[in-house]
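In the previous chapter we treated chains in isolation. Here, by contrast, the input contains two separate entities that must be folded as one system, with a combined length of 872 residues.
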Amino acid sequence: MGKTSYTLCIAGNPNSGKTTLFNALTGAKQHVGNWPGVTVEKKEGKVEYEGLTFNLIDLPGIYSLTAYSMEEVVSRDFILKERPHAVINIVDATNLERNLYLTTQLLELGVPMILVLNMMDEAEKKGFRIKIPYLEKLLGVPVIPMVASRGEGTGTLLRKIREIVEGEVTVVPRTPKYRKEIEAALRNIETALEKHLSRAFLDLYPSRWLALKLLEQDEEILRKCRKEAGADSALFSALNSEIERITKILGDDPETLIADQRYGFASGAFKEAVKVTIQDRISLTDQIDKVLTSRILGIPFFILIIWGSFQLTFTLGEIPMHWIESGFNLMGNLFSQWITVPWLRSLVVDGIIGGVGSVLVFLPNILILFLIIALLEDTGYMARAAFISDRVMHFFGLHGKSFIPMVIGFGCNVPAVMATRVLENNKDRVITILVVTLMSCSARLPIYVLFAGAFFPKHAGNVVFSLYLLGIVLAIIMARIFRIVLFPGESAPFVMELPPYRLPTFKGLMIHMWDRGAMYVQKAGTVILAGSMIIWFLSSYPAHPSYSMNYDRLLQQETARHKAALAGIAQFVKISPDRLAAYPPFQACEKVLAAYRKESSERLKKQCALGDVAQKRDTALHAIEKRYPGTLKPFRAYRREMERHEAAVEELLSKKAAEKAAKSYAGRLGRTVAPVLRPLGFDWRNTIALISGLVAKEIVVGTMGVIYQVGEAKNESQKLMENLRKHMTPLTAYVFMVFSLIYLPCIATIGVIKRELNSWKWTIFSASYTTVLAWIVSFIFYQGGRLFGLG
Amino acid sequence: MDGNHLKPLSELLPGERGVIRKMKVRGPIRRRLMDMGFVSGTPVELEKEAPLGDPVDILVKGCHVSIRKEEAQNVLIEVTS
């Protein structure tokens, strides 16, 4: 038995169906990671076939094997260094000529290869008759027709892979022959390579390929050779004289000539192997584009699609949101019954369940948003969105493709930062990442909902919208400033394929959605869990601070007063005090009052008059009085006393809790930092909430709840809103929302920025500029508002 | 080839066709354009402009490629229709 595990990779153009094939072969057995050192996604999967294991690597989508992008470098390095047992080159059969350009370069790497002609059904509809055996002969590799979206042809592919890796078939790829001047130059360079480079280095690369790359002036390979041979090696003078000679004789630089001839090879193969039977049929894609990117309808449709995506995200997401919310509430209740140790109960219920619950509540929104984004990407509309928005984005120093991360930013900044990978140019990436955090993510929404609901109940929608708008405007302004200040000079080019519209596969959408959703869950599970526990600790300890009043004694006094008052009432109706609550006439009255409360609140909701409901109550109470004479008077006294007691107890408990919060570690921290934020109209409570928001902005609302001591009140958010109104003005509330929008994105986002840009400098810059900007903008809003007599 | 017949790709009208004769583009974008099929001798068609007038959608080797006018300016073509 030889080894039964083989490494394979899939290479191909973007939009050639690479990922569809990968999904079809591996199913759910995938692992998504990163290529070492770079931020290009690496997908791996396993395929079991007839007792063999194929380790399948999905290389990033590329057009070429130059050193233009990280994706290209990663792909060719993988093939050269890992020497996979076979390379599966998937091409879009409807677009064979252009796709074969990459194939040509893969053939030049000299590894065993299988060419997969994907979307054969569409190619046939387009009138392409592809002579497969002929194509096999021209390229020297097996060619397999396929419809990856339906899984057609995967069986043949697997069989062919087995034949190749088991050595039953030998593949000898045919490579293009260049013009004689270039071939001569290649031979001379190869000789020079043998002379000037070490054996070990030469063994890493096929020598003809190395010579080609040097002739093409590939920066990556030049750098490696310079490092190996020394920058002043005779190798480079030999190379330069070859380049000069070719440029002089042929009138163009070798790079262009080589590309020309590769295309010559590709289009030669295409013309010989493919018969086109229908000419110039207007495709469905062209017809759709006539509407979606048309001069008049293009922009309205663009706005409609983006608006629709958001509507769907938030309206559809609301339903499961309530389920999750009640699920966590139930869990909290259960745990608070099971756990008897008070501090542990508080940690689990308030810290862990409360903290993680407040984040997972947004999971439905996030999943729907990612599903829609996957849908837009997989259908091909995202490219059109970039096409339509590039003009505007370019004006502001961004790139049409920056649009995609910006939209994702509304869902969650974490995947938005990761989505900047679509940008090939590093400057564009840095600028986009820096401003993408200004996109108001869904974690900030609960803050807006709370404050807008408390202070601007009639205009809540407009207020929230104004914050989203403010984020966008700031992002645009900052992008323009960064482009001018940080990266002056030429902006990156915008070259992007507009792929044909396609129906996405269900499986593809699900995998796409889940990959990103999982990132969000991971954030909830790690950073936010830890953060919630830290915030819980800071705000709950020290557990027994020295209070300004003896709350416990005051409580005892109140209880004693209450007992005495009840005893008086009990004497009046001539029963023992502890049986007052169960006294039948009182119970009857309570029932009437309960019914009244229920009915009147329903009326209020419908905004109807209350007149007859109150009348109904009075009639019922009089009926009771008639049946049990002398009930109403003591009952009213009883009711008043009960309410007075409840209010007194709650006030004492709230005061105690608020004082505890103020004297907690978090409270002390808030008081220390508060002077910095005072010019913005914030007090120490706001400061604590904002500090806790560094962990995740969702936490701000929860912290507000703790500080304002909502306590055990039945209607928590109502109570919180009331308390907020006592301490803040509408102006400070709005400024608070503005500050929450802009200042430092959450820790998870900062972590992702560090990972993506691989630079502490940019990470620290991102964290600090947003906070400074938040201060400045809030200052303008607050002081400006006061000038106009607001607040 | 007489240089006078050549016209920047950016000046084509929607629906107009031509053949690439000279790539004046420099820098990394030149390589990218070549990878996408912009090499001399290749027929191209300006399919349409984006709603805001820029970028443009170029049909090259059966693919739609969007490039900005400032880049298309440096692709010289011979108009065929």
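The interface with chain B takes residues 63-64, 66, 68, 94-95, 97-98, 101, 255-256, 259-260, 263, 267, 285, 289, 293-296, 298-299, 302, 383, 386-388, 390-392, 394, 400, 493-499 of chain A (CB under 8 Å). Chain A has 34 helices and ten strands. Compare these points with the single-chain example from earlier in the chapter.
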